[in-house]
Amino acid sequence: MPSGISKLTCLQTLKVVVVKDGNHESGGLGEIEDLASFTGICCIRNIGYANNVEDFKKANINGKKHINSLLIDWNSIRGFADNSVFGVFISFDEKHRVRKKRFELEEVKLEALRPHNNLKGLHICDYPGIVFPSWLGDPLYSKLQDITLERCNKWDGSGRVLDRDLPCLQSISIIDCYMLKNIKIVQSSSLRRLLVEGCLYITSLHGICSMHRLEKLEIRRCYNLLIPAEEILPSKLQFVCFEKCFKLTSIPGLQKLPSLKKLKLYGCWNLELALEEKLSTMPSVLEIAHCPRLKKWCQRYGYEYIETSCVFKCSRWSAKDPRRNHNSLFQ
């Protein structure tokens, strides 16, 4: 961090600045304390290489009300094809020697990076703490539209993270959080999209039935997930995907979605649908593959069964109908 940058109080952007934590010849993260004009998308990465927690507190991220999206990344595994999308891009030096990591230290870092409540987008990646700070999910963030939690591998679902309704929240993505076992999501007022992917040990997902405005639901590679009978899918869903949910036996409400446009069921070996009930509407794109217990259901309602790829298609579609091109699914 360039020494003296703290004097540029009207600075709005800061492109690809490397912080050498503990280097007395250059400034630390605390140098941005008074830079309240930072604007746009802010990325702070390689946080795992930082030791000076006091510098995190001094940085005063909470005082930067013009930052609309914040990406907080503990590592640099994620590549950025175009750093120009970030108004502020700060990275800690990977060559810096790191003290032995402690969960408590990483939790304090994230607590100190509390953003202003004008925030609209939040992405936390590779967070090694066990619990999230109290500000995550705080109803004070009434403008927040998008939350992504990615590779937070020590988090098991503890704490009040997504069980407080945020009135503008439209999208939640939970990706590769391996220790997550169950979670309750209470976002009934505005949520449009929910993605849960690569959470290998998750067994339950509570709150789906309360997401009355949900339009897009994607559950991928959640091998142990089961959906209880009371978690009926909300009726406004247009896009539904369950992929490689090996233990999944039922999807309550799937056959009663009048607005359904795209449906993908792939690699759900134990999934069954009630034989006496067909889909309430025929989606324009339908793909069911490697779900052997759905064969009888498809045969009952006249869907063509293709043995080689285990793909079921609606027999009323013609060969020229573009809806038969399953490669275009979810593009």
From TrEMBL:
Question: What is the protein name stated in its UniProt record?
Answer: R13L1/DRL21-like LRR repeat region domain-containing protein
Signal peptide location: none
SUPFAM superfamilies for the chain: L domain-like
- A Pfam family hit: LRR_R13L1-DRL21
All copies of domain R13L1/DRL21-like LRR repeat region, residue ranges: 29-177
